[in-house]
Specification:
The complex is a heterodimer.
Chain A lengths: L5 E9 L6 H4 L39 E4 L11 H8 L4 E4 L4 H10 L2 E4 L2 H13 L4 E5 L4 E4 L2 E4 L4 H9 L3 H6 L2 H10 L11
Parallel strand pairs in A: 1-2, 2-3, 3-4
Antiparallel strand pairs in A: 1-5, 5-6, 6-7
Chain B lengths: L6 H7 L2 E3 L6 E4 L2 E5 L4 H10 L9 E4 L13 H17 L2 E3 L9 H7 L8 E4 L13 E4 L2 H10 L1 E4 L3 E8 L8 H12 L7 E6 L1 H4 L3 H9 L8 E3 L4 H7 L11 H9 L11 E6 L6 E3 L7 E3 L10 H10 L14 E4 L7 H11 L9 E4 L4 H9 L2 H8 L2 E2 L20 E4 L14 E4 L2 H10 L5 H5 L1
Parallel strand pairs in B: 3-4, 3-6, 4-5, 6-7, 9-10, 9-12, 10-11, 15-16, 15-18, 16-17, 18-19
Antiparallel strand pairs in B: 1-2, 2-8, 13-14
Classes of the chains: A alpha/beta, B alpha/beta.
C-alpha cells in the first residue's frame, strides 16, 4: 500500500451528495482484469458534459476531491478508488462516506477525510472562489488546512498507523498465523465446505 | 446468565481469531463467494506476492456479472475476464460454476440454493449485495478486491466492531405488498445512509411471516440503506428451507446443528444502538421515481415536489415532473431478475399475474432467472411457457440488466420497471431510467403499459 502522511494540492469541488460508485466508474468499464488504467473512466458519464467540474481547465491537476455526504455509496467495486487514484487523487474530503468505499480507500492509500458539512462547504467555496487554492491534509497532525479553513479530523488510530506506514494488511494478519491455525483446529466439523466440481 | 446479546454480536463473537486493544477484530470467514468481476486483481496480487489460497474448500466461484443471458458471441473483454476466473480457480483448486454449468447463477442465489448459506456463518463476497445471505442469520459482508485478496490469503478479515440496529416491522402485510415493498419502505424511512456503520437486524411479525426468498429480498437491499449487513434470526422457516439441501447438515449432524442455530436469535433484553419500527399495515407497493433507492413513493402517489438540488437533478435525469401520477408513467421495458428478485418464488408470483395475459404492445419484457437451477425449476412448473406466451423473453441466469455489464442494457432515455436494487443514473445502461418495483408490480405493469398493481388488472 502507498503510504500517506501529508499531502498538499489543489482540489476539485464535486458539490453532489450520495455519489454512488456507479457514477465514479460505470459497470461497463469493470471488465478489465488489470488494477491500473481506470483513471480515464473516472466519472465517465458526467464528464461528457463539458461544464462538469472535472473538465474545467481551472481544476486540472487537482489531487484532492471535495464531495457531498454519503460519498461512494452502492457497489463494492474497488475500481472506484483505483480510478480516483489513477486520475491523481490522493485524498477525498466529504461529510460522510459509505462503509465499503471507505474501507477500499484505506486498503490502497487514498485517504478518506470526514469533515463537518460546513467545513467541506467552506473548502468548496474557497476553491470555487480561487481554483489555485492549496489545501493541506496532514495525517500526522490530523488537520486539514487551507488559507481560510483550519479543521481537525478524526480517523481510528489503527488505520492511521497503517496508512502512515503504508503497511500491507495481509502481512499484518499473517503475524497471527498461529492463531488462525488454532481457530481452524477448533472449528466444528459440521460446518459446510464446498463440494469439488 | 451473561449479558443479553444480539444475533449479530453472537455470530461476530464466534468468529474472532485475534483481538487486541485498538485493533480491528480479526474474523474467520466460513464461506467466501467469488465472481469474475472483483477477483482477477486479487488473484494477481496473490501471484505477485507468492501467496497461495489458504482454503479453496471454503471458497466457491461462479460467473454472473458479465455473462450473456442469450445465445450469441461473447465480447472479447468479458471473455478474457471469464477465462481469468477459470484459470485462477483451476490453479487454486477452487470449485467454479462457469457459464453453461447447471450450478451457475448469481452468486447470492447459488449460495443459499446449494445449502452453503447457513445460520451463524461468517460469509463474505466481493459484492455489496452479500447482505442477502443474512436472511439465514449469517453475518454476510460485502468487501472490496483488496479484502478479497486478504480472505483468499488468510481466510480472515480484519473488521471494526459494527453498531447494531433493529428494524422492526410489526403486523400483517396488506395484500399485494411484498418483501420488496417492505425494504423499499424501510429505505424510504431511514435513508440511503441510515444504516451506515450498522448491522441491521430485521425483526417483527411481518418479517417472521416472510418466506426465505422474501427475507433474502429484504436483507439484499440493506446496502441501499448503507448498512454493513442485514440479518434475520433463524427460525423454523429457515430450518425447513435448509433441510435436505445438498450441503446442509444431514443425518446425525442435523439435530446438533438445529440446537446450535436455535441459540442464535437475539436474547430478550439485548440492546441495539439504534431502533426503528414500521407498521406493516401502512405499507403499500412502492415505485422509485428518482436516482437513489430512497427516492420512492407508493403506487397511489404522484411524483413529489423536489425537496433539494439532489432531487431536482434526479427528476431531470428521470424526465419526470412533480404531480404526475405514478400510474400515468409508462415504461418502455420491464426487467424481472437480479439478486434481489430472481428466485423461484419471485418468478411464481410474476407468472401468476401474467397467466393468460399479454405484455402491452410495444413494451420490451424479459425474465432473467437467478440461477440455472431456478430456471430449470421454473421450466418444470411451466412458468417459462407463461412468460413466453405473455410476451416476455426467457433468458439464462446472470446479473444481466441489473447493472448492464453484458449486452442486456437500456438505451439512452429508455424507461424501465425493474425488480433490481439500484436506480442510479446509467445503472442499467447509459442514460437509462430505472424505476424499482416488486415482481408483481413489474408483471402488472408489463400488461397495463403503465405502473400498476394486479388489482388494476381486475378493474
Amino acid at each position: 500500500m502507498r503510504p500517506f502522511s501529508e499531502h498538499t494540492g489543489r482540489a476539485l469541488p464535486l458539490d453532489r451528495s450520495d455519489v454512488d460508485t456507479d457514477q465514479i466508474v460505470p459497470a461497463r468499464y469493470l471488465r478489465r482484469i488489470e488494477r491500473t488504467g481506470f483513471g480515464p473512466f473516472l466519472f465517465a458519464e458526467w464528464r461528457k458534459d463539458p461544464d462538469f467540474v472535472l473538465n474545467r481547465p481551472e481544476f486540472a491537476g487537482a489531487t484532492i476531491l471535495l464531495a457531498g455526504p454519503n460519498f461512494g455509496s452502492g457497489s463494492s467495486r474497488e475500481h472506484a478508488v483505483w480510478a480516483l487514484e489513477d486520475a491523481g487523487f490522493r485524498t477525498v474530503i466529504a461529510p460522510s462516506f459509505a462503509d465499503i468505499f471507505r474501507n477500499n480507500c484505506c486498503k490502497i492509500g487514498v485517504l478518506p477525510v470526514e469533515l463537518a458539512q460546513e467545513s467541506v462547504r467552506a473548502l468548496m467555496d474557497a476553491v470555487l472562489d480561487d481554483p489555485t487554492t492549496e489545501i493541506t491534509v496532514d495525517l500526522h497532525a490530523l488537520r486539514v488546512s487551507a488559507p481560510a479553513v483550519h479543521e481537525a479530523f478524526e480517523i481510528d488510530p489503527y488505520t492511521r498507523w497503517r496508512l502512515l506506514e503504508g503497511l500491507d494488511d495481509i502481512d499484518l494478519t499473517l503475524r497471527h498465523a498461529n492463531e488462525i491455525d488454532a481457530y481452524e483446529r477448533d472449528r466444528p466439523a459440521r460446518l459446510p465446505s464446498v463440494p469439488r466440481a | 446468565m451473561g449479558t443479553p446479546r444480539t444475533l449479530a454480536e453472537k455470530v461476530w463473537e464466534r468468529h474472532v481469531v485475534h483481538r487486541a486493544n485498538g485493533e480491528p477484530d480479526l474474523l474467520y470467514v466460513d464461506l467466501h463467494l467469488v465472481h469474475e468481476v472483483t477477483s482477477a486483481q486479487a488473484f494477481e496480487g496473490l501471484r505477485l506476492a507468492g501467496r497461495p489460497v489458504r482454503r479453496p474448500d471454503l471458497t466457491v466461484a461462479t460467473m454472473d456479472h458479465n455473462v450473456p443471458t442469450a445465445p450469441g458471441p461473447v465480447d472479447p473483454v468479458s471473455r478474457t475476464q471469464m477465462e481469468a476466473l477459470e484459470r485462477n480457480c483451476t490453479e487454486a483448486g477452487i470449485t467454479l460454476f462457469p457459464t453453461g454449468d447447471l450450478g451457475q447463477g448469481i452468486v447470492h442465489v447459488i449460495g443459499p440454493q446449494m445449502g452453503l448459506t447457513q445460520p451463524g456463518l461468517m460469509i463474505v463476497c466481493g459484492d455489496s449485495h452479500t447482505s442477502t445471505h443474512g436472511a439465514f442469520g449469517a453475518l454476510a459482508i460485502g468487501i472490496g478486491t483488496s479484502e478479497v485478496e486478504h480472505v483468499l490469503a488468510t481466510q480472515t478479515l480484519p473488521q471494526r466492531t459494527p453498531r447494531t440496529m433493529a428494524v422492526t416491522v410489526e403486523g400483517e402485510l396488506p395484500p399485494g405488498v411484498s418483501a420488496k415493498d417492505v425494504i423499499l419502505g424501510i429505505i424510504a424511512r431511514i435513508g440511503t445512509d441510515g444504516g451506515v456503520g450498522h448491522v441491521v437486524e430485521y425483526r417483527g411479525s411481518a418479517i417472521r411471516s416472510l418466506s426465505m426468498e422474501g427475507r433474502m429480498t429484504v436483507c439484499n437491499m440493506s446496502i441501499e440503506a448503507g448498512a454493513r449487513a442485514g440479518m434475520v434470526a433463524p427460525d423454523d422457516t429457515t430450518f425447513a428451507y435448509l433441510e435436505g439441501r445438498p450441503n446442509a447438515p444431514s443425518g446425525a449432524e442435523w439435530e446438533p446443528a438445529l440446537e446450535d442455530w436455535r441459540s442464535l436469535p437475539t436474547d430478550e433484553g439485548a440492546a441495539f444502538d439504534k431502533e426503528v419500527t414500521l407498521e406493516a399495515a401502512d405499507l403499500r407497493p412502492h415505485v422509485s421515481w428518482g436516482t437513489n433507492p430512497s427516492q420512492t413513493v407508493t403506487i397511489d402517489d404522484v411524483v413529489p415536489e423536489p425537496a433539494d438540488e439532489t432531487a431536482e437533478r434526479a427528476l431531470a435525469y428521470m424526465d419526470l415532473h412533480p404531480g404526475v401520477a405514478i400510474r400515468d408513467i409508462r415504461p418502455d421495458t420491464v426487467f424481472i431478475g437480479s439478486c434481489t428478485n430472481s428466485r423461484i418464488e419471485d418468478l411464481r408470483e410474476a407468472a401468476s399475474i401474467l397467466d393468460g395475459r399479454k405484455v402491452r404492445e410495444g413494451l420490451r419484457a424479459m425474465v432473467v432467472p437467478g440461477s440455472m437451477l431456478v430456471k430449470r425449476q421454473a421450466e418444470r412448473e411451466g412458468l417459462d411457457t407463461v412468460f413466453v406466451n405473455a410476451g416476455f423473453e426467457w433468458r439464462d441466469a446472470g446479473c444481466s440488466m441489473c447493472l448492464g455489464m453484458n449486452p442486456d442494457q437500456l438505451s439512452p432515455g429508455e424507461r424501465c420497471a425493474s425488480t433490481s436494487n439500484r436506480n442510479f443514473e446509467g445503472r442499467q445502461g447509459k442514460g437509462g431510467r430505472t424505476h424499482l418495483v416488486s415482481p408483481v408490480v413489474a408483471a402488472a405493469t408489463a400488461v397495463l403499459g403503465h405502473f400498476g398493481t394486479p388489482e388494476d388488472l381486475e378493474a
